[in-house]
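Q: I'm writing up a methods section and want to include an example of the input and output format. Could you take the sequence below and give the corresponding predicted C-alpha cells, formatted cleanly so I can copy it straight into the document?
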Amino acid sequence: MTLLRATAVAAILAVAGGAHAQTTTIGFDSLEQPGYFGSVFNSYSEGGYNFDSSFLGLLSSAHQDSFAYAGSAGLGATPLSTTTLSRADGAAFSLSSISLADFVSLPGSFDVTFVGHQVGGGTVSQTFTLGGGHTFADYTFTGFSNLLSATWKEGALHTFQVDNIAATVSAVPEPATYGMLLGGLGLLGFMLRRKNAA
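A: Here is the clean output for your methods example:
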C-alpha cells in the first residue's frame, strides 16, 4: 500500500513540476551594425516576441558609431509613436526587467510610462525616470504579469530605446504530463476505495 501511495504522490508532483516558466532576455543582438547612422524597419521579432509601432510601423536602431548608440543594440521608434510588445503565439507573459537609454532627445531627464494589458481586460502601468544619457540603465517591473501585450509611447522631444527585456511565459504541460496526473489521481482513488472497503 505504501508503494502505491508513493507512486501516486510522485505522479502528481511530476505534473506540478512539469510546466516550467520559460524566461527569455530580448537583447536585440541581431540589430548590431557598424556605421554612423541607424536602421529603420517595419517590425521586429525575437525569441517568440513581436514588436510593432503605431506610426507608419517604423522602429529603429542606432548603429555602433552613431551618437545615439548606448553601448549595445537597442530598439527605438519615431517620436509620438506607440510600440507594442506581444507574444507571436498569443500566449500570456510577464515582464520582470528592462534596460532603457536616451535615443534622440533634448538634454535632461524625462519619464517613460509602460502599460501592461492583462488577460481579462485589466491594465497595469509603471513609470521610470531616465537620466537622458546614452548609456543603458536597468529598471524593474512590478506586477507586470499575465499580459497579452505591453505598450510604451515615445515623446515629442524625448525618445528612448529599450534593451535586455526579461520576459517570461509559462510552458504548456505536454500530454504525457496530463496522463501522469490522471494516473496519480486514479491510484489515489483506488487506494481510498480499498481503504473504505476494508
